[in-house]
Amino acid sequence: MVKYSFVAVWLFVGFWLVNSGVHAAAANPAVIEAKKAAEGKGFLFIASRDEILAKAKQEGTLRVISSLDTESFKPMMESFSKKYPFIKIRMDEIGGPEALQRFLLELKAGMVKDIDTSEASSEFYVENAAHAMKIDILGMAQQGVLSINPKMIDPEYRSLVSVASSICSIAYNKNRMAPEALPDKWEDFLKPEFKGRKFITDIRPQCMASLMAGMGEEWVVKYARQIKDQQPVWLRGNARAMSAIATGEQALHQMTFYNSCMDAARKDPTKSLACKIIEPAPVYLRETQFIIKNALHPHAALLFIEHMASREGQKILDDHEPLKSSVYADGEVARLLKGKKVSVNDHRTFTNTPKWMKLVVDAYGFPRADK
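The structure corresponding to this sequence follows.
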C-alpha cells in the first residue's frame, strides 16, 4: 500500500510538470518570441510577472528620486506599500534643471550607488537614457507582463516611462482681466493692447517647445520673436508667476502649466487667479522614470513604475499634483483635452526639446528674469 502511494505521487508530480510546461509554452508563444527578440537586441526581458514579484520580495527595499510635488510622496508611497508590503520604499525630491544636471554628472562619474529609479528630464533626456538599465519595459508592457499603457513608454529607448503630463495654458487675474478681453488663441498675445509689460512670459520655454510639436519650428520661432517685441515681463518659475498674478501685481501669463495654475488657484485666498486652456493645447510629457543601470533593486523599481502608471497612481497625480496624469491614461488630463486640438511633445519628438527650447530662447533674445 505504501509502495502504491509512492508511485502514485510521482506519477502525479510527473504529469503536473509535463502538463504545466506544455501549457506555459502553448499559452505564451508571443511572450517567448518577444523575449528572444529583446535579448537579441541586448535588452533584459522578464517573461513572468511571478518572477518580478519573487525577486522584488528578495530585494525588499526601494529608493526613488522624483520631481513630483512632495505632497504626492506620502500617498504614492502608502498606496504602493499597501499593494507590496514586502518592499520598504523611500522617495526623495529632486527638482529644477540645476539639481537634475548635478545628478547626471554624478551618474556619469559613477557616484550614484543607492538610487534605483530617477527622472530623465527633458533638458538631459538622451544623457539620462544612456544610464538607464537596458530592460525592455515596452515589450513587457505590450505582452501584459507589466500593466503599463505602451504609449507611456519611449519606443526607441524602450526603458523610459513618462507617467505624467502637463497641459500648457494661460493664467490670469479675474479682477484685472474681463472674460471678453482674454486671448482665445496664441496669436492674440500679439495684439497692440498687450504690448508693454502687459503679460508674463517664462524664460524657460518648455511649453513653447511643446507647441513646436504641432505648429512646427518656423511658426513658433517667428511667434517667439513677436512675443519679444511685445515687451513682456520676463520671469522664471511657475510659483513666482502665479503669486504675482494672484496678488494683482501682474494680470496675465502667456503660457504656463495648467496644473501649476490650478494648484495655485485652489490655494489663492483672494480667488482671483484663474486658468484657461487655449488650442492647440501644448502637452508636455512629465516624470519620465528610468531604472538606473547599476540599481540594486530593479524588480522593485519595475513594480513602482507600474504603480505610478496604474489607475491608482494616476489618480494620486490628479488629486495631489494636481491634474498631472498621463495624457495616455484615463485620468483628468485626458478628459480635459477630449475634443480639443492638442500639440503633444511625445516620445517621437521629445529628444528635440533641448534644441527647441534653445531656438525659443534665442528668439527671445536671451532674456533675464525681471527682479
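The CA atoms of residues 131 and 180 lie 50 Å apart.
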